[in-house]
Amino acid sequence: MVLYIFRRLLQAVPTLLLVITLSFFLMRLAPGGPFDSDIQAPPEIEANLKAAYHLDQPLLTQYFLYLGNLAQGDLGPSFKYRDRSVNDLIATGFPVSARLGLWAMALALLVGVPLGIWAAMRHNRATDHAVMGVALAGIAVPNFVVAPVLALLFSVTLGWLPAGGWGDGQWRYILLPVVALAIPQVAYIARLMRGSMIETMNSPHIRTARAKGLSAIEVVLHHALRPALAPLLSYLGPAMVGIVTGSVVIEQIFGLPGIGRYFVQAALSRDYTLVMGVVVFYGVLIVLFNLLVDLLYGLLNPQIRYED
């Protein structure tokens, strides 16, 4: 297994390099620059700023300088937050985004998996259609609509919860963002779990278990649940990364100091290094979570072996 993990990580290097290269050059093609503002700086000051950040160098030279620093684990200084590095900003924002994302995914799994199983056990009945209809609505309504509605209802109208802010991570402040993040994931997970469970329940080994006189609960828990979770794992890899680092809209709406909010502000201000840092960090997480999903397949299916 150790050799398999090493080989997978080695294979990810060209993919990450391609993502870094495309992001680096495409970002430079966008109009504007990190030092453009409504107040025009004197030419000599702007020239000094560009020289300090190597922006006066040819683009190819900037690219190789960035790769050299990246190889040493240095994501560079931020252009917008002049007194902080990109490493510091990601280290500050990621725990906030990770906490929101992990709680949201836990809530989505806690609600979505039982809903999907329940709908599958009542296939083509009114309950099944009702659950899938609600799930489809959860997918169709974007979270930038759900979040303001939740804030309007529970903060402005009822006054039960704060409308924004972090508040040292107290549950009163993170409850609404977590729910807003979890709602689309509940819908996706419920639909995936329903389809997978229906297919698994029609398998020969399930018919054999039923023929032995096992109850429906025993069949689901001991024979159908493990193979039915396999397709869900494939979804959870990128979904986990997306919900942990991609809660851009939610963090903006609720004013949370997460990595998604930093990414939006960096994109608007052409903070090249911060945008690149988030992209690289996101790519690494994708690789690691997909590898973790592949390893978890071995727990769900003992027939899978990762031979060295």
From TrEMBL:
This protein's GO CC annotations: plasma membrane
Compartmental location: Cell membrane
Keyword Transmembrane appears in the UniProt entry: yes
InterPro entries, A to Z: BPD_transp_1_N (IPR045621), MetI-like (IPR000515), MetI-like_sf (IPR035906)
Record CDD domains: TM_PBP2 (cd06261)
Coiled coil: none
Record's bilayer topology term: Multi-pass membrane protein
Residue ranges of domain ABC transmembrane type-1 in the record: 94-297
Transmembrane segments: 12-30, 100-121, 133-161, 173-193, 232-254, 274-300
UniProt keyword annotation of Transcription present: no
GO terms for biological process, alphabetical: transmembrane transport
Keywords: Cell membrane, Membrane, Transmembrane, Transmembrane helix, Transport
Family statement drawn from the similarity comment of this UniProt entry: Belongs to the binding-protein-dependent transport system permease family.
NCBIfam families recorded: PRK09471.1 (NF007008)
Name of protein: Oligopeptide transporter permease
Gene (UniProt): oppB
